[in-house]
Amino acid sequence: MQRVDTALNTWFAEEILVHEAALVRYLSRTWPQRSDIPDLRQEIYVRIYEAAKHKRPTSPKAFLFATARHLLIDRARRGRIVSIEAVGDLEDLNVLIDEFSPERRLNARQELKQLVNAFGHLPPKCREIVWLRKVEGLAQSDVAQRLNISVRTVEFQLQKGMRILAQTLLAKAVMPSARTRTATGDASQKEESDDGIQ
Amino acid sequence: MESSEQTERRAAEWLSRRDSDTWDDRDQVELDRWLSESTANMVAYIRLETVWRRADRLQALGAGLPSGKVPKPEEFNLSPFFGEPVEIASPPYRVSPAWATAVSVCLVLLVASAWYLWPSSPDYHTSVGGLASIDMPDGSVVTLNTDSAIRVELTPQRRQVRLDQGEVFFKVAKDSQRPFVVLAGDKRVTAVGTQFSLRRLDKDIRVLVTEGAVRIEQAASLTSRQSKPLSLVSAGKLASTQGDAILVQPEPPAKVEESLSWRSGYLIFREDTLSRAVAEFNRYNSRKIVIQDPAVGSIRLSGKFRATENEAFVRLLEGGFPIRAQRNVENIILTSSPVP
Q: Which of B260, B268, B258, B327 is nearest to A83 (CA)?
């Protein structure tokens, strides 16, 4: 059994996950099937994590996009509908990355704004439970008691909250899509959105 | 292999258990075992955990509020932190520095070459593969795509541009006293303050409006000032003429962006046929790509490409498809290669 490598996990969160919005945009421009994107993203993360176990890439962002491109080309060769990213050389690829990805390092204030924005997008029930747990700091059992619901329901809503927050904060952080924005007005719709989070 | 969605659900289950008040060492052992089962589990968990930890900062929202009351999204009061109500908007469109430099270089060149023509009737043109952006004295900005030519006439009474060939994007400065008129053959496109692109295909035109609205008219003859209206085209619509008929159709925003990607030197395809992709590339390169095999032309592809890099495009085609390229001085011929 492998030991959990905390330093590697921190590196992964700070150097790779911060570029998720840019990665997802890149994938959705390049790959025709939108529904494949979560699986592609996961496969890319797996490849990067495996590689970084042995040696951390010196330029994580460039490595992320190079990995993405290789994966797409692999997939393209196997599939019938083919999607390729024509970038003559690595220099071109860098141009592409810069264009797609405004600098993601946010200051504390911007970060809080994004978090509040993402929190506002949670469905009402879910938002209430996340609020009690995270803002008021109640234990899960106390949240259940306060709302007169089961602990299982609390857990379930928290799971949903985590996944939606991840989706909004990581995958869409920089440029919220039109769909995410319209979801604000009708939170119940959000649950059935094609983010697939229910 | 499990789908990423299933893995993410499992990761969320673990994380919510980890977050509970009954978590103990035995649970931790089980979690560690699950994490070490696969790297997919590990990355899915890190991803959610990172976000969940970041969400601790939501505590800032609770400041000054009575306990147990969950405010509505528009009621979050962050003024103690921000000194202003929270307003989260999408960031402004950013122009990449490389593009900005390219524009300013073109500008300098064009201004320099046009200087002695001014003010009579400056002409601008781009060669094959060229791209140029021109700031007009009235504040409008005109961007020329590959192989395009315009003639500009600005007087106190009117603003007129003749599109002799090619494709141009107009960002028209508002001036209700002087309408902005573009003449393309016998077609006349009139705007007040708006943004649109206009492509001339011999006698017909394609007009894509991204902001405001334009009026399209057809002149009775090339020299006549009389004209008959064809259509009023509003933002988000694409109008294509065929003789004196016109088709106006809505364009989804993603498609609009693709259609205008040439302004940053790119071509974007989304499941388009190779024939169409090649036709587009050939607008930007003097060394043309020729498809000799109908089967090759019907292959579909998606992607984003530098318009002037048809060599790189062909290399990718060879790598990703059963296609063979024969490189001649004046062209590149594509045929299907036998499957090995």
A: B268
Mean pLDDT of B154-177: 86
Phi first, then psi, for residue B20 (nearest 5°) are -85, 170
ipTM of the complex: 0.79
Residue B79: pLDDT above 80? no
Which of A26, A31, A134 should be substituted to probe chain B, the one whose Cβ sees the most B Cβ atoms within 10 Å?
Answer: A134
A196: closest chain B residue by CA: B5
pTM, full prediction: 0.48
For A155, the closest chain B residue by CA position comes to B16
In chain A, which stretches have pLDDT less than 70? 1-4, 77-110, 172-198
Q: A142-190: per-residue pLDDT in tens? A: 999 999 999 999 999 999 999 999 988 887 643 333 333 333 333 333 3
- Do the chains contact at A162 and B321, CB–CB below 8 Å? no
**Interchain proximity A115–B40, CB inside 8 Å:** no
B284 contacts in chain A (CB < 8 Å) = none
For B68, which DSSP code? T
Taking one residue from A and the other from B, the number of pairs with CB-CB distance under 8 angstroms is 208
How far is the alpha carbon of A108 from chain B, nearest alpha carbon, in Å?
A: 10
Residues 6+ apart with CB under 8 A from B32: A1, A4
* Parallel/antiparallel/unpaired status of strands B195-201 and B159-171: antiparallel
**Subunit contact A46:B47, Cβ cutoff 8 A:** no
Count of other CB atoms within 10 angstroms of residue B242: 10
**Of B51, B67, B73, which is closest to A170 when you measure between CB atoms?**
B51
Contact by Cβ (8 Å): B335, B292: yes
Domains of chain B: 4-82 (no CATH), 97-256 (2.60.120.1440), 265-336 (3.55.50.30)
Architecture label for domain A6-100: Orthogonal Bundle (1.10)
pLDDT, tens digit (0-9, with 9 covering 90-100), for B183-223 = 988 888 988 668 888 998 888 899 998 888 888 888 776 56
CATH number of A108-190: 1.10.10.10
